[in-house]
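Tutorial handout. Part one gives the primary structure; part two gives the three-dimensional structure as C-alpha cells.
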Amino acid sequence: MTVLKTSMRNVLAHKGRMALSAVAVLLSVAFVCGTLVFTDTATTTFDKLFAATASDVTVSTEDASDTGETTSGTGRPPVMPASVVEKVRGVDGVKSAEGTVFSTSVTVVDADKDSLSPTSGAPTIVGNWNANDARTMKISSGRAPRGPDQIMVDADTADKHGLGLGDEIGVITAVGTHRAKISGIADFTVTNPGAAMFYLDTETAQRALVGETGVFTNVNVTAAPGVADARLKEDVAAGLGGAYKVQTAAEVADANSADLKGFLDVMKYALLGFAGIAFLVGVFLIINTFSMLVAQRTREIGLMRAIGSSRKQVNRSVLVEALLLGLFGSVLGVGAGVGLAIGLMELMGSMGMNLSTDDLTVTWTTPVAGLVLGVVVTVVAAYLPARRAGKVSPMAALRDAGAPADARAGAVRAVLGLLLTGAGGFLLYLSGAAEKAGEGALWLGGGVVLSLLGFVVVGPLLAGGVVRVLGALVLRVFGPVGRMAERNALRNPRRTGATGAALMIGLALVACLSVVGSSMVASATDQLDKSVGTDFIVQSDSGQLLTPQAVEAAKSAEGLERVTEYRVLDASLTLPDGRTAKDETINAADPTYAQDLRVETVAGNLADAYRPDSMSVFEGFADKYGLEVGSKVEVAFADGRSAELTVRAITSDEVVVDKGAMYVSIATAAKYVPADRMPLDALLFASARDGQEEAAYAALKTALDDYPQYTVRDQTDYKEALQDQIGQLLNVVYGLLALAIVVAVLGVVNTLALSVVERTREIGLMRAIGLSRRQLRRMIRLESVVIALFGALLGLGLGIGWGATAQQLLALEGLTVLEVPWPTILTVFACSALVGLFAALVPAFRAGRMNVLNAIATE
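Part two.
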C-alpha cells in the first residue's frame, strides 16, 4: 500500500512531465480500438443486411456462387426456366415462391452519360422489383416500375446524383442499352453500405439483362408457418432433382459474410500493423520519460533507500507509476478509439461506403484489448528505467552523484547492436541473392527486423559520430550557440539515440516504400516501352468486361489501323505425360496481338501460336511439365469442350506484362466454346494509322462516349495511371505512418522538456553570464533539429537499403529497374528539420521564460 501511495504522489507530482507519454499511449490504444470498433461495426452492418435480404430458401443455378452472385464471363447472368418456379411452388412446406432476375454486370448512366455506379467498389445491382426487395425497401415517392419505360432507384443513389422522378437513365449491359425514366424512389429500411440499386418490372428486367423472357436467375422461397428452413431446403432440392443450388437464408448470409470477411480482415490487420508501429515508437518515448524522471529523482531515491526501502520496492514503485500511466492513457484511448471509429465511418461515407452509428458495435473484447495492450506496453517499456532506479546506491544518490555509468552495459550494448546489425545485413544480402521470390521474402523479413533492432541498440554509439558530422554541417554556422546545442545532444548519447530511433522507424518505412513504389513504376514503364507496340488500350478500371456494343463502337472509330480483342478463358490442361494442370487461364486474342505485345520467346514464334489449334505456354510451365515446341496438349475449356492443341511457342518469364500467360487465337477458342458461353473481351488494343495518332485517339474517345465505364488510354496515359495508382496507395500508407511520426515528435518534445527541467540550474547560470533568451531558445531548437536529423539520417539510410533489397526480389518477377526517389528522400530529410523545430517550440518557450535567480537556486 505504501508503494502505491508513493507512486501516486510521484505521478501527481510529475503529471506534466508524463503527459506526453500518456498521449502516446492514448493515440496508440485509440488506433487499435478504433480499428476494432470500425471493422466490428462494418461486420454488423453487412450481417444485418444479408440477414434481412435473404429469403428463407434461395434457388439458383449451379453456376451461381454461394453468395448468390450471378455474373459471368459472358456479361449475362446464368438463368433457369420459369417452370422451375412452378415446381418449387408445388413442394410441400412452401408458402410462396417468386422468380427474380438481377445482374451486377451492368453500368447505369444518367442523361449526361455520367456513371451512377458507386466509386467505393460497392456493386451496382439491376433487377426486377419483387416481394423480397419490398421487405427491405420502402417506396418513398412515386411508384414501382410498370412497363419498359419505367425504372425505380434507391434514395441514396438519387440523393448523391441529384436524380428525381421523370429523369431518364440508361442501363448498359451485354444485351445493349435500355433507357427508362425514374418512376419511383425507394428508401432502405436497413443500412445500405453503398450499393446502387435499380429496379425494372420483371419482363423488362429479363429483356434488358438476359435478352429473353421466361427465365430467372433465382427463386426466392418463403416457408409455410412451422416449417424449418433446413427441412424446406431438403424438400425443395428433392423436388428439383438436385439440378439447382438450394440454400437456406443462413447459408446465403454466411457465404456473403465470409466473402466480405477477407476484405475486412485485410483492412483490420493492416491498420493494426500501423498501430503496432506506433506502439513501438511509443516505447522509446516511455523509456526516455522514465529514464529522465529516475535521473531527476536520484536524491529522492537515495533517501528512500537510506530509510529502508529495498531495491525491489524502488523498482516496484517506478513500475506502479508506469501501470498508472498505462491505465490512464489506455482508458482515454478506448474512448478516443470509439470517436476515431465514428470518424472513419464518416470518412468511408464520403467515399460511398455508408455505415450508420445505429449499428456502432463495441464488443467487450475491444476495451479489454486496448487496456491490456496499453498497460503491458507501458510497463514493459518502463522496466529498464525501473531496474536502473533500483540499482542506485544510497550514498551515491545522497551525494547527488547520480547513478554511475555502467561501462560494462555499454560494451554489451555495443557488441549486441553490432551483432544484430551484421546479422540483419547478412540476411538482406541473402535476400538480394535469392533465386526464388518466396525464399527471398523470408530473408528480407528477417533482415528488416534484425537490422532495425541492431540500429536501435547501436544508436547511442552512432549518435556521437553522426551528431558531430551534422553539427559541423548544420550547427557551426550558428557560432557558440550551435556548439552548445551540439554538446547538449552529445551529453547523453543513450537518450539521443533513443529519441532519434523513434523517428527513425517511421522514416525507414517511408523511405523503403518510396523506393519500392518508384522502382515498380520505373520498371513497369520500362517494360511498357519495350513490350507494348499498340497505341491505345481500352479497359474498365473497375474490372468490367467490354460489351459487344462497346467493341463495335471502338472498331468504328476513324483513323485506326487495327483493333485487337483480348479474352480470358478458364481451362484444365492434360499434358503429354498424363499429368493434369487444373484451374489454369488461357488468353485468347486476335493474331494481331503478337504485334501489340512484343513478348520474347525462348523457343518458337509467338505469331505461330495464333494458328488454328495452336497455343503458346510460358517458360516456367514448359519446364515443369517437360513441354517443347511441337508438344500436344489437351485443353478442356471450362465453358466448352476439349481440344488438342499444339505448342508453337514458349514465352520468356523475364517479362512483367502478361507474365505467365498462355495464348491461343480467338478463332481457336470459338471453335470449342459455344458463342453463348464465350467470355467478353477483357481489353481492347488499338493502333492508329501512321501520322493519325492524335486524330485516332480523339475519335476512339468519342466512339466510346456512350460507355463511361471504359477508359481509353495511350501509353502516356497508362503510365500516368500506373503512377497515380501506386502514388495513391503510398499516400494512404504515409498517412497511416503519420501516427508513428506524431508519436515520435511527442518523444522529441518530451525529451527536450524533461531535459530543460534537468538542466534548470545550468540554464540559470548561462543566463546569468550573458546568454540571452533568444540565444537560449535557439540553442534548444538547434538541439532538437540535430536530434531529428540524426533519426532521419539513420531511418532514410536504413529504408533505402531495405527498398533496394526488396527491388532485387521484384527483379525476379520482371521489375528490374531500381529507382531511388531522391527528391522525396531529400524532402523528407528537410522536413525532419522542420519537425525538430516544431518539437522544440514549447520547451524553448518555457526555457526562455525561466526566472534566472530561481533557476540558479534550484537543486
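Part three, for discussion. Residues 400-405 have pLDDT under 50 and may be disordered. The chain has 27 helices and 24 strands.
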